[in-house]
Amino acid sequence: MRADAASRRTRHRVYAGDARRLPLPDDSVELVVTSPPYPMIEQWDDQFASMDPAVATALDDGDGQAAFDRMHAVLRDAWAELARVVVDGGVVCVNVGDATRTVAGEFRLYPNHARVTRALTDLGFRQLPGVLWRKPTNAPTKFMGSGTLPPNAYVTLEHEHVLVFRNGDRREFEPGADHRYEASYFFEERNRWFSDLWDDLRAAPQVTDEETPRDRRAAFPVELPYRLVSMYSVYGDTVLDPFWGTGSTTLAAMATARDSVGVESVPELPAQFDDRVDAVRSWSRERARRRLSAHRETVADREDTYEATHYDFDVVSRQERDLRLYAVSETERVLGGYRVAHEPATDAET
Q: Per the count of CB atoms within 10 A, which of 49, 58, 121, 250 is most buried?
């Protein structure tokens, strides 16, 4: 796998293992993008019970609060591992949804985002502003409960939380760090991506025609980790997903030319990943082309601009001048994961 001076090569490792015991050295990860099993969502009951039998006992006894507490105790051990492997100044992004459930005849909300926040802040992570994203839904109604009769209807949950935390102070970079300026994002992307509400993920192109069914643990469209990796890491960084699932974070890291590590407790899931890797080359090229074309349109009529170093269009700010996007040019299966070659992306039709 050859690469010229303008190209990049990345490594992507996938381990079968337990998020509570990561096979990684201390201070080895710059960014975490993950979505854990959601406590009190029934499809993950068995997984939590396999790690703590008291979960099953609480559910059998009709004690929803005790089950909720025990499930989050399991997750807390995984968050403690992040405190060990994330570098000082590194960022942790956790996608999580709240749960509604009836246990022993009692219906209630189980606020997973609040419990994850408490666990990570108790470990010393500093919470940053996060994002609510609206999930695509085919629900025929916008309410549950008693329909149109007050007061017993309740709101349908159509969003999830992206919680964002930093490990200590902001990362320090040497002045003029090339890998940081090359990894910048466009001005208009900054305005859209750093909004606290994302409602446009449905329209983003997917790596496959249909996203993997949720019962196989694909918690989000690839566009979501793609944005987070672009927002919170630079070229040369390693991105970790300790609840790897179907590998959406790894695909996002491949598409953005970052290294990645995934850890997955269900051994058959990594074995089913090759088909998605085969599709990431065309997806990454198309995603980069759309970004470049959209920016070209944005600056077409602007005058207060700067000349870009690597493209024939202008940019809005000095920080964007050295920006360069990459697309996957080749993937190679190797022991323990993948090696990926990347070439500079263009906005030409492909």
A: 250
